[in-house]
Amino acid sequence: MATYIAFLRAINLGAKRKFPKDAIKAAVEGAGFTNVETYINTGNVRLDSTLRSRAKIEAALEKAFLADRGFEVPTIVFTQKELAAIAEEAASFGHGGRHYVSLLKDVPTDAAVKAVEETSTAEEVAKVGGRAVHLLLGDNYHEARLTNAAVEKKLGVATNRNLTVISALAEKWC
User: Fold this and answer.
1) Residue 13: pLDDT over 80
2) Which is it for strands 2-8 and 44-49: parallel, antiparallel or unpaired?
3) Which residue among 33, 38, 88, 138 is least packed, with the fewest CB closer than 10 Å?
4) If you average pLDDT over each of 67-76, 88-97, 137-146, which comes out highest?
5) Domain count across the chain
């Protein structure tokens, strides 16, 4: 049995994509996963599974979420070790501004990484490490061009969390 952390994309946005924590937990347990926990209402789930394939876990969760909610919920899964490494890498930047992390479903190509990192400016910096894109933003974060949507255009399906959430999850679940 191994522990994984799943990040749900685009839930609890507007009236039509509601997915409360208790319903998420019930859907995950209904899909056969155990020791399920959630953290805040943005789609962060800890689970245990006998499955060893990240793709199979993501597919099983996405199928359960579609059946439960009636809409697709892209899901991105990491091992505890992977999440801890993302949090550790984030801390190494020592960035004093806003720090967001776009978590990627797939490993990006070198060309895609280069394309994203080349969009960096003095005020907005993108640093890609594996399946995580660190968006280091200044005071202009509400007007930033480097957003999860911009990351997705170049790197595919992603979901975004702030560094506070990433750090808390790594401390709590890794």
Assistant:
1) no
2) antiparallel
3) 88
4) 67-76
5) 2
CA 44 to centroid of chain Cα atoms: 8
Residues 118 and 165 in one domain: yes
* pTM recorded for the entire structure: 0.95
Q: Are 88 and 169 members of one domain?
A: yes
Q: Do 58 and 15 belong to one domain?
A: yes
Q: Half-sphere exposure of residue 54, counting CA atoms within 13 Å on the CB side?
A: 16
Last residue of a domain, one of 49, 79, 109: 79
58 and 86 in a single domain? The answer is no
Asked whether the beta carbons of 57 and 28 are under 8 A apart, the reply is no
Q: At CA 77, angle to CA 35 and CA 33, rounded to 5? A: 25
At residue 112, the 3 state secondary structure works out as: helix
pLDDT for residue 164 is more than 80: yes
Give percent of the chain above pLDDT 70. Answer: 100
Cα separation, 90 vs 95, in Å, equals 9
Same domain? 56 vs 85: no
